[in-house]
């Protein structure tokens, strides 16, 4: 479905500000190149928030800002070199993630990391390896952290979580990982604060987690397996913001 079709189907759902942004983008295509068409650059150029730009692409039915960008330039850049376009998509995924993570990492999350006695990290598959890296980084800062990847042990560990002491961080690209659901249910029953790092909006896990940190959306292919760099960015920014606020205590 092309951009104009999406506009005709979804225009009624846009706010006045979002319609104004869309109008400016459609009427002033010469102001942007493919490389510079990013959430940050658009927000700066049109004097609006990055959240408003991202929300516009969502309301038009796009899973990610990159898809919106590709449709926007479909007619103008039919001859874009495929290799260069792929590189641009990768860079924009990282920029998209940086923008989203900056928006959704709240002071409350950072404060909770500081006050909890232990951080419990849960993830499956590729997220398991990221969890181990995150655990080591937290421990180097003197923050007690455990990382769980065995589904059976996950269930056992989640049953001994304590509301006053523990913080749970879930790494789930889809927000629907079956092995993590029981952990999340146990955490909810015990009133444990949960931070979900995910690509997906409207998931089951989102509705059951107190804090959500969104990242840009990635895609796997047989030749190019996703490395979860978007999750790396989210976790690195969590640590960076913690150090900035509590560096005197580290």
UniProtKB/TrEMBL annotation:
It comes from the Bacteria. Residues 109-248 form the SIS domain. The keyword Lyase does not apply. Keywords: DNA-binding, Transcription, Transcription regulation. The keyword Glycoprotein does not apply. CDD domains: SIS_RpiR (cd05013). This is MurR/RpiR family transcriptional regulator.
């Amino acid at each position: 479905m092309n951009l104009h079709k999406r506009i005709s189907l979804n225009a009624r759902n846009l706010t006045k500000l979002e319609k104004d942004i869309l109008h400016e983008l459609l009427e002033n295509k010469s102001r942007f190149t493919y490389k510079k068409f990013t959430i940050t650059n658009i927000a700066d150029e049109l004097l609006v928030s990055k959240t408003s730009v991202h929300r516009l692409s969502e309301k038009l039915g796009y899973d990610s800002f990159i898809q919106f960008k590709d449709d926007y330039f479909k007619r103008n850049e039919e001859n874009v070199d495929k290799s260069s376009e792929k590189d641009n998509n990768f860079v924009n995924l990282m920029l998209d993630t940086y923008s989203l993570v900056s928006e959704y990492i709240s002071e409350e999350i950072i404060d909770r990391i500081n006050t909890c006695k232990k951080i419990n990290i849960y993830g499956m598959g590729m997220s398991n390896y990221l969890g181990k890296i995150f655990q080591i980084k937290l421990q180097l800062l003197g923050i007690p952290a455990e990382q769980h990847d065995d589904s059976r042990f996950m269930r056992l560990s989640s049953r001994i979580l304590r509301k006053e002491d523990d913080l749970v961080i879930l790494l789930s690209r889809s927000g629907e990982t079956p092995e993590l659901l029981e952990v999340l249910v146990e955490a909810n029953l015990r009133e444990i604060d949960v931070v979900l790092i995910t690509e997906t909006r409207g998931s089951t896990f989102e509705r059951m987690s107190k804090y959500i940190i969104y990242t840009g959306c990635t895609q796997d292919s047989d030749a190019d397996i996703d490395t979860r760099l978007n999750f790396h960015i989210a976790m690195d920014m969590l640590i960076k913001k913690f150090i900035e606020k509590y560096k005197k205590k580290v």
